[in-house]
Each structure stands twice: as structure tokens, then as C-alpha cells.
From TrEMBL:
Keyword DNA damage annotated: yes
GO molecular function: crossover junction DNA endonuclease activity; DNA binding; magnesium ion binding
Subcellular location: Cytoplasm
Quaternary structure annotation from Swiss-Prot or TrEMBL: Homodimer which binds Holliday junction (HJ) DNA. The HJ becomes 2-fold symmetrical on binding to RuvC with unstacked arms; it has a different conformation from HJ DNA in complex with RuvA. In the full resolvosome a probable DNA-RuvA(4)-RuvB(12)-RuvC(2) complex forms which resolves the HJ.
Gene name tied to this protein: ruvC
Protein's recorded name: Crossover junction endodeoxyribonuclease RuvC
Catalytic EC class: hydrolase
Alphabetical list of InterPro entries matching this protein: RNaseH-like_sf, RNaseH_sf, X-over_junc_endoDNase_Mg_BS, X-over_junc_endoDNase_RuvC
Length: 182
């Protein structure tokens, strides 16, 4: 299965694509989609850049499913609103391109990849590098996106195993420790 992970952000959105074969994880691609108000782009134009960028990634790598980070609430309400708009744009791009979307919190992501929910960015980068056998550290946003894809690969295997024993409805199994899966 090919999984696309998205770490949403208005200035920098990370993406990561992995293939899974059973428990084996294989790196396909990763990177970032950048927008900057310094370029004179207004918010709607920046959101279009994100939408078009994610659509291009989906068309190029043809993932079967996707995972996106659930936004946390910041101290700065304005920053939270902008991040929420960027995240909404990312979700819309994924759904518009026909992908199912699973959502995970930063805590779930860090717990699944590093084993510690309060891991820092450097620990995430190192574990992603090790799990995917990369020659170097991925960028911070790309590492989070790859981590989301890894998290979804682990959850998908668990849900598939549970479904073999007792089929569950989407709403029931989507409650994976507060994450969402549609």
C-alpha cells in the first residue's frame, strides 16, 4: 500500500510518501510545499499554492490513502486560525483527489514513531531516518509527514487484524486513541 503523509502548515507543508509490504516500510519521496507572504501572495493565493502542490504530489506518486496531522491549539489564536485554514486546504486537496484521509495528533504520531509522545523534532527525524533506512536526516516537516505515513501504516495493519476477527464499522475503529479515520 502506498501512503501519503501530510504535515500541514501555512508557510511550510511537509509531505512524505512510503510504500508498505506487510510490516516492511519503503521510502518513496518527501519534501515541502512552501508559501511566503514575503512574495506578496495573499492568504487565498497561498492556500491555492498548497492545494495545487498537494494535488501535484498525489498525481505524481499515486498514493492509495493519506494521513494528516490534527492541529493543536496555539497560544496565539491568529496563528491557530491560519494553521487551521492551511490544514483545511490540505484535507480538501486530498479528498478532491479521491484519497481516504486518516487523522492523527502530534502525540499519537510521536508515540507511534519514537515511542514517546513528547519527543522533539530531532528525535522524530532520527527515528524516521532509521525506520526508512535513509542515508541522511529528512527535513523537520518532511520527517513529520513521513512519520504520519508510518503511523498510518501501523494503525492500518492493526485495524486489518482486528477486522479479520470481528469486522468493525468505520466510526468504531476510527477512535484509535482519539484519532480520526474517514
Amino acid at each position: 500500500m502506498r501512503i501519503l503523509g501530510i504535515d500541514p502548515g501555512l508557510q511550510c507543508t511537509g509531505f512524505g510518501v512510503i510504500d508498505t509490504e506487510g510490516a516492511a516500510l519503503h521510502y518513496v519521496a518527501s519534501g515541502t510545499i512552501q508559501t511566503s507572504p514575503k512574495d506578496g501572495a495573499l492568504l487565498p493565493e497561498r492556500l491555492k499554492i498548497l492545494f495545487d502542490g498537494i494535488s501535484e504530489v498525489v498525481q505524481r506518486y499515486q498514493p492509495e490513502t493519506s494521513a494528516c496531522e490534527i492541529v493543536f491549539v496555539n497560544v496565539n489564536p491568529q496563528a491557530t486560525l491560519l494553521l487551521g485554514q492551511a490544514r483545511g486546504c490540505c484535507l480538501t486537496a486530498l479528498v478532491a483527489n479521491g484519497l481516504p484521509v486518516a487523522e492523527y495528533t502530534a502525540l499519537q504520531l510521536k508515540k507511534a514513531v519514537v515511542g514517546y509522545g513528547r519527543a522533539d523534532k530531532a528525535q522524530m527525524q532520527e527515528m524516521v531516518k532509521r525506520l526508512l533506512q535513509l542515508p541522511g536526516l529528512p527535513g523537520k516537516d518532511a520527517a513529520d509527514a513521513l512519520g504520519l505515513a508510518i503511523t498510518h501504516a501501523q494503525v492500518a495493519r492493526s485495524v486489518a487484524a482486528i477486522n479479520k476477527v470481528s469486522p468493525l464499522q468505520a466510526k468504531t475503529h476510527a477512535a484509535y486513541k482519539g484519532g480520526r479515520n474517514y
